[in-house]
Known about the structure:
20% of the residues lie in helices and 35% in strands. With 166 residues, the chain is α+β, with helices and mostly antiparallel strands. The strands form two sheets. It has a five-stranded antiparallel β-sheet with strand order 1-2-3-6-7. A hairpin with a 5-residue loop joins strand 6 (108-114) and strand 7. The radius of gyration is 15 Å and the shape is globular.
Amino acid sequence: MVREIIRSGNPVLRTVSKEVNSITPEIHILIKDMIDTLKASPIKGVGLAAPQVGVNLRVVIVLFQDTKSEKIVPLINPQIVSANGEVEDYEGCLCLPRLYGRVKRYQEVKIKALNEKGELLIMDLKGLTARVVQHEIDHLDGILFVDRMEDPTQLIYEDHPNLFHT
């Protein structure tokens, strides 16, 4: 089921999300709905956090892409274990459609999370995927990308097909 993506200004986006204590059928439904919602979005998205669909649980989905394939991966209770390097690039957000801003993020992160079966995942991520995961974890902590901008006056509004939203 496609859920509504809530917009900035909704207090759910500024609330710290609760940890998932057990993988229930409701969590599986949430993940499926989040995947359906991301795929149905008219704005190209590469990640989605549960708070963006109004659910304050520590669940995100991330589109993993390489030259051969793409796969949407759910991450439950994701945490950054280590990080290094720093790069500044444009980000957008499905909760702030068509707004983009330059944000500094780690170039590489090691994360741990649970998958939809409750199994522990440890992943080393780089580049765009590392950026997306950091952006989604921020959503779980009530933080929007505009909060991370050093110069909010540089926020741009446009319909740009080459910039991503999460």
